[in-house]
Write a structure and sequence with these properties.
single chain, mainly alpha, Growth Hormone, Chain: A, 17 helices, about 0% strand, globular
Length: about 425
């Protein structure tokens, strides 16, 4: 019996079920980091515990994230170009995974007042996470048929949100038990960092066992800088991809601000407790998983551009609902709209880049995808942080400010021709 899919399936001809599952398991594994560390637990603990609720605490948090994203912007395309030249996507993925796991585990030592240590470890862990995210995404076009990129990308993202649910659920179970015994956050949050790191390491193992490195080393091992320069010289040839990356830059600024600051907004603006915030994030991960899985099929049916336009309209609606929400019920509605849009827009964007990327330069072009996303991750959260600082802690105004990025993304989405862009990638 074989696990090969029949002809005209969503997968490439030489790809089997097990390999796609192994690829998706990396999304499952690494999502615990963003869900627990960046979104739900450590971000709020940093502001309230490590920084002692200082006025500059939110700005310090967003600045640390921005520094890590700046490092990714500077190095991501180079790492991708080197991986393509040496057929080393999988090798570099292993190194980035090890770096993120170790730095996350080291957050165990980030006690109240240990500002420098906490900020340094956030920069390191998030840098390695982002490099790994670029590299695992570069495998997508090798696994999926070009007409089914949306649904296969959606499979991976939905697995990712399920991974976030598992990681956060384990941490919530431990935190609930610790709080019942009277332990403070300075005790149970560090342990949750160890749980997150261990799960990341364990669950990523199938990826390294069964995901194949199909690329072949380029003759002469062409240098990373030389490859990037050659791509820059041909930028006009990839005009649809270029326009989409600019569009992505703006709408991802809004998404990254929501991801990085959701727990802070819930606790500071809506006065949620830690347990309420974690429960909210758990439920939002369920809606995000559903959005990513189902929307991938819709994307392949109605087209990539229309699909992303729908998600951006949803994001704009979410911002307005969150801004006007006066009670927990209203914020729950906004959060679940965000979940549906987050899963679908993240999967959709990755699929578009997969369709528009040349087969021989996948890691490099997904490095450019990472450059756009991480550049957005710099000024999106920073916009939020500066808005709260300037307005004296008004989180409602801050969420409205970052909402403008979704409007800009919707405008820039016009004019992208996917058929023309695919032809350019294969030309």
């Amino acid at each position: 019996m074989t696990d090969r899919l029949p002809p005209r399936s969503a997968l490439a001809a030489d790809v089997r079920y097990r390999e796609v599952w192994a690829w998706s398991m990396y999304d499952f594994a690494n999502s615990g980091y963003t869900t627990v560390v960046i979104t739900a637990v450590f971000s709020a603990y940093f502001v309230a515990g490590v920084a002692g609720n200082a006025e500059w605490a939110t700005l310090a948090w967003t600045t640390a994230l921005s520094v890590s994203y700046a490092l990714v912007v500077l190095t991501g395309p180079l790492v991708g170009a080197w991986a393509d030249a040496h057929a080393a996507k999988k090798k570099l993925l292993a190194l980035s995974t090890l770096g993120c796991v170790m730095a996350t585990a080291a957050l165990y030592f980030a006690a109240p007042g240990a500002l420098v240590l906490a900020l340094a470890l956030i920069v390191l862990s998030n840098f390695f996470f982002c490099i790994g995210e670029n590299l695992i995404a570069a495998f997508l076009p090798e696994l999926a048929d070009s007409e089914a990129m949306g649904r296969v990308s959606g499979w991976g993202w939905s697995f990712g949100y399920l991974g976030g649910i598992v990681s956060l659920g384990l941490c919530l179970a431990y935190i609930t038990r610790a709080q019942a015994q009277g332990e403070p956050a300075s005790h149970f949050v560090p342990v949750s960092m160890l749980i997150t790191a261990a799960l990341f390491a364990l669950v990523s193992l199938p990826t390294f066992l069964w995901l194949r490195e199909r690329a072949a080393p380029q003759p002469g091992g062409s240098g990373a800088w030389r490859r990037l320069i050659a791509t820059a010289h041909r930028a006009q040839h990839y005009r649809d991809l270029r326009r989409f990356l600019v569009c992505l830059l703006f709408y991802q600024a809004g998404i990254q601000a929501v991801i990085a600051l959701a727990a802070i907004y819930a606790q500071e603006a809506m006065k949620f407790t830690t347990q309420q915030t974690i429960t909210l994030v758990l439920v939002v991960n369920v809606t995000a998983a559903a959005g990513a899985f189902c929307f991938g099929y819709l994307q392949d049916r109605i087209g990539h551009v229309r699909a992303i336009a729908l998600t951006l309209i949803g994001w704009i609606a979410m911002v307005l609902v969150a801004y006007f929400a006066e009670n927990a019920a209203g914020f729950w509605v906004a959060a679940n709209i965000a979940g549906l849009c987050m899963g679908s827009s993240q999967a959709a964007g990755r699929a578009v880049v997969g369709v528009l990327s040349p087969p021989e330069r996948l890691a490099e072009f997904f490095g450019l995808w990472g450059l756009a996303v991480k550049s957005a991750s710099i000024f999106g959260p920073l916009t939020y942080g500066l808005a709260t600082w300037i307005t004296g802690g008004n989180h409602r105004v801050a969420i409205l400010c970052v909402g403008a990025y979704f409007v800009i993304g919707l405008v820039l989405l016009r004019g992208i021709d996917m058929q023309r862009g695919r032809a350019a990638a294969l030309g």
